[in-house]
Amino acid sequence: xxxxxxSLFPIVNVLGASIAVFAVTxxxxxxxxxxxxxxxxxxxxxxxxxxxxxxxLLWLATRRFRRELMPRDGFLLVTLIWAVLPAFGxxxxxxxxxxxxxxDAYFEAVSGMTTTGATTLSGLDALPASINFWRCLLxxxxxxxxxxxxxxxxxxxxxxxxxxxxxxxxxxxKDARLTPRISETARGLWVVYFVGCVACFFxxxxxxxxWPDAFMHMCTTMSLAGFSSHDASFGFWNSAxxxxxxxxxxxxxxxxVALYFVAWRQRSLSGLNLRPARSGEGRHDRCAA
Length: 289
Prior knowledge:
The chain has 289 residues and is an all-alpha fold. It has one domain. It contains 14 helices and no strands. It has helices at 2-7, 9-25, 27-35, 41-61, 71-89, 91-96, 102-113, 129-157, 159-168, 182-207, 211-222, 240-253, 257-271, 283-288. Helix 10 crosses helix 11 and helix 10 (182-207) crosses helix 13. The longest helix has 29 residues, at 129-157. It is globular, with a radius of gyration of 21 Å.
């Protein structure tokens, strides 16, 4: 038991905190259900309470076992996050759609959070707006959500944080230190992602979508996923303009966010007449700080 406590309980502690934070995202569809006076409102109340209580209890029960996580702990933690969070993400679907099996609900949540885009549901037009909102929000979170996890756990990972970042990133950019600190890089990437999402959202609205549809399809477009609030998907509008907006932003979203961040950062440094530090420059000053 002491060996188990030393090796696994610190990981469970961070997992519990992550589950509790994930519960907060359920407040968004809860607000949608509240303002639309939907029957699904009670669904999100229960889902939020179950998720938050589960995460908080895990965190409290293992708080005394906290320690600095090793790189291998980080890999296990990320695996657990991707396996466990969809189970909680499936709760609103399970609670509101009684005929839906856990397997189908879990598949839907995994498909959303991994931005796969496959769905087990039909009759989407008849679903409450908050349910479709939650499905699409899962995809938006999945589009860049792993960075939220990294920002939360990297301060406890030390050197392992950089190794975890390299594991999760793909392509040649994974070996580049975009900023002196990984957490600063994560925030920068999120800013770039958010700016693209805002532009896509207003473009869909300008092209003829309603505000709710524009938001939900922005989530699925910028995450390169594919959920929709209509069974006919983009065929619902039969609009070449809307399809053109979708194609344009899918092309933009298909390029690594890190490349946008590097281009923006270099442009900012050029405007300030500055240059990025060479390898090794300023290292002593940063360590001393």
